[in-house]
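Quick one:
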Amino acid sequence: MLEHNVKEAKPLVADVMNRMKRPDGCDVFQTEYRPVDNIEGGLRAGQLVTIGSCSFEGKSFSYCILRNMLLRFGISCALFSLEETFYGIGMHLLHFASGIPYGMIIRNSLPDGMDKKLTEAACNLSNSKFISGECHLMNFKSLCNSIRRQCNLYGAHVVFIHTLNSISLDNEIGTRKECLAAILQKLKLLAMELNVCIIIPYCIEDNKRKKSVEKKTIFLKICSDVNLTLVRKSEDNLYELIAAIEAGFLESRSELQMEWVTHEFFDGR
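Output:
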């Protein structure tokens, strides 16, 4: 009976939360993806957002969110990568902003007419509120200090970190998941300290079944304010996006289609 009542309460609570007036000064950031924007009207300042996926999809999805925030909503965003150089980040940003396959850009093998499209994307990015963070081979303490410095100096509202898998756990004690949970707790406190939204993807290794993916994201749901999980539903690159808050108590789901060549995500309707 209790379980039945809890299930019925979920849509009611979601409706109440969406109708409530937001506190003065609370920044809400749209992503243009329905499950994320519907569950609380968008992401908020002071939140830690995790993205769980089986492979590279989570990182690609975070780039799509970054592009939308920069170019469609004019939000000030910063990206800190422990995996890529400034050059690599620039290539990925041009790729997602222009829709031109990454391989064509990095090999400089653009078909006729594509150069104009790439130039337009570069101009749009140059005029956006993108803040390039420090990259590559930072330990966690240096990463946090760099985020503080860039946010205080340049006023970033949303911070992307690539990726949770790449953060060194040398100074944490316990199992790998316990160490990752400790890192997420510190990032959660950092998001509240700076009043920014922090978005970080995590790759779940060696899991292809839907049940395994959702099961492996439980610690992400518990440790973050918002958890986004990408579950591949078929071989034709159809995914289910699950947006969860309150450790999974409230959820919103929708289908997304990934374009295999460009790794862009689109509404699956």
